[in-house]
Amino acid sequence: MQYLVAVDGSESSIEALEHAIGVASLLDAGLTLVYSVEPRILVEEGGTAPSFSEASERLYTEDISEAEARGERVLEDAVERAREASVEADSELLYGDPVDTISEYADEEEVDGVFVGHRGLSKRAQGFVGSVATGLVERANVPVTVVR
């Protein structure tokens, strides 16, 4: 059996990873850890989502190389956690919208299930960009375990 774990470095994704490690240990399964690189466009702290006219002053974008470097660090840490628990793990850096890339990768690799954290971003940012967990539950063709 092979399970996919979506990680983003948030506390929620670490909890999902730890849960997946426990399940994989019991079932003698392997894990594929994925991080989807999508340069962020986020609202600055301390306010609500801006109007269109305010957007240039209140939003920032992230450079692709910074997003890739962060993804690699998150994946390295996740693989190390799995291997410390004697669970076979590999990783993959994906590119694009996390819901699309993770669900497509799960289909292509024919994984047996997906683990994802309940919330990676702040509530405010989540409302602005949407929920990966919700999107995966709606889109994935395999069981999705959402870990709180």
From TrEMBL:
Residues 4-148 form the UspA domain. CDD domains: USP-like. It comes from the Archaea. Transmembrane segments: none annotated. Pfam families: Usp (PF00582). Belongs to the universal stress protein A family. This is Universal stress protein. It comes from Halopelagius fulvigenes.
